[in-house]
TrEMBL record:
The lineage of its organism: Bacteria, Pseudomonadati, Pseudomonadota, Gammaproteobacteria, Oceanospirillales. This is PDZ domain-containing protein. It comes from Marinobacterium weihaiense. It comes from the Bacteria. Keywords: Membrane, Transmembrane, Transmembrane helix. The chain crosses the membrane at residues 129-152, 158-188.
Length: 207
């Protein structure tokens, strides 16, 4: 659990030493890495403010704070917590000043693929149209194959192939067009997310 030891950020006058941070928007805060990730997600979503849920003197409070870098110092875990996590990670230096940076979650994203947020899908109408095109494209393909099978059973295999070749080719072209269009839409969505992450990286370096 994150317990504030000192508030070094003048924008966070509502916070006090001893406050226990519970959630940042919809993200639970078991450690500083989770807080970094929550801050980063709020910036990706271009949110101006965030809701910080905390416990103070057995009361739960909701505090509106600006998104982005937070200058907070946290108390170090108790000795029992160090014993449990000693093999997982080395203990940090006591009284070390911790600056919460929105660029820090990028390292966590690389270390665990389960934390990588999926790209937000846009162009819903275009994706729906492509799905219909792909569905109807398979219909002439299936019908053409049925015609070929029937033709061979009636000793008219060559004629069946000639009759079925055109609808099969048209159907396959429809399916291919739909799949290529969806791939282009996926590339566009991924490029959008890449631009957002690049902007956050540049912003973190400037700070």
């Amino acid at each position: 659990m994150l317990i504030i030891e000192q508030v070094a950020d003048t924008r966070l006058g509502q916070l006090q030493a001893g406050d226990k941070l519970l959630r940042y928007n919809d993200f639970e805060l078991p450690d500083e890495q989770a807080l970094n990730h929550a801050i980063w997600r709020s910036q990706v979503d271009k949110e101006a403010t965030a809701t910080l849920y905390l416990a103070r003197h057995d009361q739960q409070l909701e505090v509106k704070i600006p998104t982005g870098r937070l200058e907070l110092n946290f108390k170090q875990p108790l000795q029992d917590d160090f014993a449990v996590n000693a093999e997982a990670e080395p203990a940090s230096t006591p009284n070390e000043s911790t600056a919460i940076d929105a660029a820090a979650p990028l390292k966590a994203e690389r270390s665990s693929s389960s934390h990588v947020p999926p790209a937000e899908e846009h162009y819903k109408t275009a994706r729906t149209v492509c799905a219909f095109i792909s569905f109807f494209g398979w219909i002439p393909v299936v019908l053409g194959l049925i015609v070929i099978v029937i033709s061979f059973s009636n000793s008219a295999g060559l004629m069946g192939i000639l009759l079925a070749s055109s609808p099969i080719v048209v159907g396959l072209l429809m399916v291919m067009f739909a799949q290529v269009a969806i791939a282009i839409l996926d590339i566009a969505d991924n490029s959008r997310e890449t631009r957002k992450m690049t902007a956050l990286l540049l912003q973190g370096k400037e700070q």
